[in-house]
Amino acid sequence: MQYDSDGVERVVFYQSRQLQAAERNYPVHDKELLAMKYALAKARVYLLGDRTFIVYTDHASLRTAVNSPHLSQRMARWLSFFTEYNFSVEYKPGRLNVVADALSRRPDFEQTAQPNSRGDPTVAILTVSVPSSNLLDDVRKAYTEDEFLMRLMD
């Protein structure tokens, strides 16, 4: 999602996939990190660069996963992959994250997904949001107004 000039959220792209057989056995927080890695890889062309973006997740513990001293080798590899991007993770309840919530309930995925203890299929999903920012323009403007830098450029 990103905001248009009127401040309305607009979808940049949709992406969803079914978990592989081995991935269905991952702990829930690993499934959430897998979803984040998958989304970042698919949206790479939009997200790489100096702009900061926000990853919204309905899994609150994902925000603290990056600071955990007890990482599996898989999580450590994924966190290494995440260092290419400039983002923060924010919690957004599923009821407020309607688009991502709808993608996680695709009927064709439910036929093969492993049910959890409640009998619901478990599919990891998240939304990546790129807020518009004028930071780069502000920095450029500040450079032109800085007397010290102007003397260096002359």
Automatic annotation (TrEMBL):
Stored InterPro entries: DNA/RNA_pol_sf, RT_RNaseH
Looking at the record, the residues that make up the Reverse transcriptase RNase H-like domain are 1-85
**Per UniProt, which keywords does this protein have?**
Endonuclease, Hydrolase, Nuclease, Nucleotidyltransferase, RNA-directed DNA polymerase, Transferase
Q: Does the keyword DNA damage apply?
A: no
Q: Which Pfam families match?
A: RT_RNaseH
Q: What CDD domains has UniProt attached to this entry?
A: RNase_HI_RT_Ty3 (cd09274)
Instruction: Kindly indicate whether the keyword Nuclease belongs to this entry.
Output: yes
For molecular function, the Gene Ontology terms on record are: endonuclease activity; hydrolase activity; RNA-directed DNA polymerase activity
Coiled-coil boundaries: none
Q: What is this protein called?
A: Reverse transcriptase RNase H-like domain-containing protein
Q: Which organism is it from?
A: Peronospora matthiolae
